[in-house]
Amino acid sequence: MVSKTKAALQAYRDAGTRAAKLKSTEAIALTTGRKRIVLITAQGVTTAAGEYWKRIGGALPPAGGFASQTPMREGNTETIKMRNARAW
User: Fold this and answer.
1) What mean pLDDT is predicted for residues 72-79?
2) Which of 2, 12, 74, 83 has its CA 20 to 30 A from that of 54?
3) Is there a contact between 58 and 50 (Cβ–Cβ < 8 Å)?
4) How confident is residue 37, by pLDDT bands cut at 50, 70 and 90?
């Protein structure tokens, strides 16, 4: 990983920035203005920046979204929770 990215991650940690899920995907990233550093991809794979973020003591939010949900089965129907809290 580039030292510029490491320096940015340390600055985010020192500022108390928290990782959050991106609006358009299930990826988790640190964002400031137009810049973002992806820590966990939409497929749930931790990036090199994500590994470094964990190593320096940054907290990742709990995994959420469709990829980490276990469908609930009722009879012959499987449902998951949608973003608006409705079951689908």
Assistant:
1) 86
2) 83
3) no
4) very high
